[in-house]
Amino acid sequence: MAIDTDTARRVAHLARIRVAEDDLPALATELSSVLAFMEQLSEVDTDGVEPMTAVSPMPLKRRDDVITDGDRQPDILANAPDAREGFMAVPKVVE
Amino acid sequence: MALNELTIAQARDLLAKGEVTSADLTEACLTAIESATTLNAVTTVTADKAREMAKAADARISAGDATAMTGIPLGIKDLFAVEDVPTQAASNILGGFKPRYESTVTRNLWASGAVMLGKLNMDEFAMGSSNESSAYGPAISPWREDGSDAAITPGGSSGGSAAAVAADLCLAATGTDTGGSIRQPAAFTGTVGLKPTYGRCSRWGIVAFASSLDQAGPMTKTVRDAAIMLGAMAGHDPMDSTSADLPVPDFEAALTGDIRGKKIGIPREYRVEGMSASVDTLWAEGTAKLRDAGAEVVDISLPHTKHALPTYYIIAPAEASSNLSRYDGVKYGHRATLSAGEGINDMYEKTRAEGFGPEVQRRVMLGAYVLSAGYYDAYYKKAQRVRALIKQDFEAVFADGVDAILAPATPSPAWQLGAMKSADPVEMYLQDVFTVTLNLAGLPGISVPAGLSSKGLPLGLQLIGRPFEEADLLNTAYALEQATGFSAKADKWWT
Fold this sequence. Notes:
The complex is a heterodimer of chains A (95) and B (495). Chain A has 95 residues and is mainly α. In chain A, 32% of the residues lie in helices and 4% in strands. Chain A has a two-stranded antiparallel sheet with strand order 1-2. In chain A, strand 1 and strand 2 form a beta hairpin. In chain A, helix 1 crosses helix 2. Helix content of chain B is 37%, strand content 13%. In chain B, helix 9 packs across helix 12. Chain B: The active site is at 77 (charge relay system), 157 (charge relay system), 181 (acyl-ester intermediate). Chain B: Heterotrimer of A, B and C subunits. Chain B: Belongs to the amidase family. GatA subfamily. Chain B: GO terms for molecular function: ATP binding; glutaminyl-tRNA synthase (glutamine-hydrolyzing) activity; transferase activity.
């Protein structure tokens, strides 16, 4: 399936990556070529095949629902680009 | 032989006899790293930390408390979180990030007494086959084509690890493999690269690319070293719910070199169009050598092989788009400068446009597309179904009694840096044709150096094993290593 400029714009927005309007046609062409390659899968008969959702057949481990870690506010904020008064700061979200 | 040229096994034996110290080994590696900046393999040197760790290792050896890895200087791929050491996954979006925690694999290695030399170059977020997507610029292979001084790619994504091991900047290195990122660079540099079974090594603290495919493994000079190092890296970890709660066997003890009666499968679908003649010849020679060593060679079929690449290039970007959504300019790394009036969505979009390189952007967008409403079933779910069929192909072959599968590691030798610049993305993706199948099926695989191309560049053969039977796989690889007797090294032009 070919991707048009509008779809490319939508995909860039979904991915939260800013793409300049002038670059959208090239992006659309590039994504289309990769998707054309993926179209090969349509020739595989997958009727009745369960999608593979786990690599190993083992059931996931369970553990008691208890707190095992915490009180690490300085560690968590240490790498934040803008940390103030114990919080990560972001541009105003609510008017 | 210079101390940095030793294998892990040789160094271990000399350390045990008291003939060298870890401090000596570590200094030899640090000196080699200093003289090899041209290769751009090492992105951060942790010299002080290395010297401290070497001192502690020497004390431990004197006290009679050593493991096989105690005192061994290692390089660590930039994908592994190492406490207080820059960890950037070779991406600008993680610029300045210093983790306040340690990945389980590196924690295991330090607990065994290994020494940290520094962080190694790679493709950005492990997305690439040539190291050229790195924010640090590409690592360069120590190998050159005969009669040429053009820079050659060490492969990717663990290209810095491969270059560092091949150039003797460290005794061994860690790598990660999502679609071939350990095995392909190992093949390109005449080194050994082992991708263990999915779940053998904990993924905790390794920057995530595609969580159902990622697996850490050793990159070493010999098969024996891979066996030793895997033993120190592996083990169950409650912090990774997909880590296997299985005992870690003594992999080195399995190396008898006796493969008589073993059944080796040769997959007919791996004879792909465009495979280089030297790779084809090498594969035939490797097959003959395993037969001479007493193995039974059988023709096998893995019918869904040709669909593995499109399956991989749907599943991996889909998982990447989820995993990389955490890079938002809030918690760590880069944040774009905003103009007056710009809000939080502008911050996300500008930060990610500035922080991610072109290949990462392409895959994140592709992933967002195949997961989006209306396309999820057609692409992502379809790929998951084909993935199940690919896994079943292998299960059928193993159920027929095949112990290991022999295939090339790559369709061609390494190429010159920049040679793929004008290629479209799909052309680069075709490089992974022999390696992605294992990641999709979760199987262990190892690349063993087996010969040189017509232009004098290394080529590797790949062995694929049954899940969690790395010990048996390593033994077959050991027999192949003995039979090929590969001993070529790159000329040291960079010092």
